[in-house]
Design brief:
- The protein is an alpha+beta fold and 331 residues long.
- The protein folds into three domains: 41 residues; 113 residues, Lipocalin (Beta Barrel), CATH 2.40.128; 149 residues, Lipocalin (Beta Barrel), CATH 2.40.128.
- Helices cover 18% and strands 39% of the residues.
- The protein has six helices and 20 strands.
- Strand 11 and strand 12 form a beta hairpin.
- Helix 1 packs antiparallel against helix 2.
- The longest helix is centred in the N-terminal third of the chain and has 20 residues.
């Protein structure tokens, strides 16, 4: 029964019995004062903050990695370091973050880079980020390995899923954040062409996906081995990535060239620096390898990695709302 309806019912009963004793309204008043906290506790138990009896430090450190499920974020503000991170870790009062998908599982022994410190007290988590400063969070336990961090100053909630290093869901990470993965290299160089029939895309030797609204791509016909800094990005257009119905490990990529041409592919990830494109219209398969890994550090910092070509734009993740498509019958 709704709490307030129940209280109104009690008051009605009391009114009907007022003539029996002038003490009853006073007793009922104190009875209601006592019962309200009990009922409100029941109302909010499904979203209860971690009980003080549970040691928050243990709850956070029980898992090696906490995946930041950015697509479930709710609220009006943001906490910058959480918007940048794919995973965070709480280890001996040091806060770690993986701000890149590439090399995840290797950087910092899998935990990423140190980005600050943290402390827990009386059910609250306080993070002191090296650049963003102090942020306080209430921590809500949603399931055995799932928590919600609520920052009341920014009015934002982040949802975290806990994993051990040996069972981390890398497929979930790559495919849920495929746009950001494509942006982590300055260029994608074609390394293999297999099957199919000849078509204009055979001449596209380099692709680039930029952080410009997650929609802009460039392409080039330059010969293999061209220095990244010297690539002539002659072609430009918009791209869109679609979820595939009933498939978690496959996407559909559409390239819309400014000249009006449209190319559509099945997109799959082979490893953290190789993608495969299957061209629907010609049944041709292309492999592309990433060149010029872009490492995103604590914020405005940047660092060369793998090759000298590095770009950094203080990237933050936002919710990605993809449309869906049915997978075509392959030729």
């Amino acid at each position: 029964m709704d709490v307030f309806l129940f209280l109104a019912h009690l008051l009605k009963l009391d009114k009907n019995n007022q003539n029996r004793s002038h003490m009853k309204p006073i007793k009922l008043f104190f009875t209601l004062l006592f019962m309200i906290p009990l009922f409100t506790a029941c109302v909010f138990e499904d979203d209860a903050v971690l009980e003080r009896g549970i040691v928050l430090e243990n709850a956070l450190s029980d898992y090696d990695l906490w995946y930041v499920d950015i697509h479930r974020t709710t609220g009006t503000g943001e906490v910058p370091f959480l918007s940048r991170a794919f995973t965070i870790s709480f280890i001996n009062n040091t806060l770690y973050a993986n701000n890149n998908i590439v090399d995840i599982g290797h950087t910092g022994n899998g935990f990423g880079i140190s980005v600050g410190s943290y402390a827990t007290f009386d059910g609250l988590l306080t993070a002191n980020h090296d650049l963003d400063g102090y942020h306080d969070f209430e921590v809500f336990q949603l399931s055995a390995n799932e928590i919600r961090l609520y920052n009341y100053r920014e009015n934002v909630s982040y949802y975290l899923i806990g994993y051990q290093s040996n069972n981390f869901d890398y497929d979930k990470l790559f495919y849920e954040n495929i746009e950001y993965f494509l942006q982590e290299f300055n260029a994608w160089e074609k390394t293999a062409t297999m099957g199919g029939i000849s078509n204009p895309f055979d001449a596209e030797n380099y692709l680039q996906f930029t952080p410009e609204n997650n929609t802009t791509f460039y392409s080039s016909h330059d010969t293999f081995g061209t220095n990244i800094d010297l690539i002539d990005w002659s072609y430009i257009g918009g791209y869109e990535i679609f979820d595939v119905i009933d498939s978690e490990d496959l996407k559909i990529l559409t390239l819309n060239y400014e000249g009006g041409d449209i190319e559509e592919f099945e997109l799959s990830v082979l490893d953290d620096e190789t993608i495969r494109l299957y061209h629907y219209n010609t049944a041709t398969t292309y492999d592309f390898s990433g060149l010029g890994f872009i490492q995103y550090l604590k914020g405005g910092e940047k660092e060369d990695n793998k090759t000298p070509a590095v770009r950094n734009s203080n990237r933050k993740r936002t919710k990605v709302k993809r449309r869906t498509k049915m997978r075509r019958n392959l030729k």
